[in-house]
Amino acid sequence: MWQFDPGTNDNDTKRKRKKDRVVLFERECAEHLKAYLDTREDTIPFVFVNFKSTGQMFPRTIQLEFDCYTKRLGVHISTHTLRHTFAAHLARKGMPFACIQVLLWHNGQHQTQLYAVYIIKQ
Asked: What is the rounded distance in angstroms from the CA atom of residue 63 to the CA atom of residue 122?
């Protein structure tokens, strides 16, 4: 479950393979997120709720939404595309690959180096 603390810029979540994850974002993002959560009338403990606002939105639902965007835009995009874009922006700004590896929760350098190929092609 995702835990949001508007007083900090890092927030804990448990996701893939039950690893603890930290989501980093700026104060402005935290303010927008808090404003969104303040407008919700439900007590569902998830940021992303299903279309009926009765429970969490599952990853497959998000993937299907991205599939719709792909068809409408004529360009393939996915949640994984967002990861690649995030890594590419960090690398272009000069962040060392070892740091990018930590932020992406890669177990080894090889995974991050695969992203480097994508970045170099850009």
From this structure: 24
